[in-house]
Design brief:
By secondary structure, this protein is mostly helical. Helix content is 80%, strand content 0%. It is built from six helices and no strands. The chain is elongated and about 55 Å long. The relative contact order is 0.17.
Amino acid sequence: MSAAELRSQLNTRVSYMYAMGILDEYYQELQPPQDEGFVPEVINMFLHEADMMLNDITSLLNLPVVDFEMVGELVHQLKEYSGSVGARKVNLACVHFQQFYEGKSKERCLMALNVLRNEFYDVRDRLQTIMQLEKQIATLGPN
């Protein structure tokens, strides 16, 4: 595939993600034209940190006595991280989660965690595909 075809495929995928509300305008703000390595680094850091936070939240919710304050701190951090990279649906899932940890409902927190995890996995897979396309385009050059 040529660089132009890959660029078209990339643009289609990103446009779809905006149209479906998976990404928001903050993703576009990540795109500094002078530093091509910046965006993948930020995205990879987000994906790594978010995965660790989801594991920590899961561990906390599986304890006999849940520390809802700590769950809330982790969800808030994840909300901030997801907002900074434009992962809109993850951000919204964090907002939704907030009402359940504030209500100290373990059962509802577990349901909200499931939704949050699904949104994260969806955006993770899509962002990884975008980064792979960008890498292929960079390898082929500007043609």
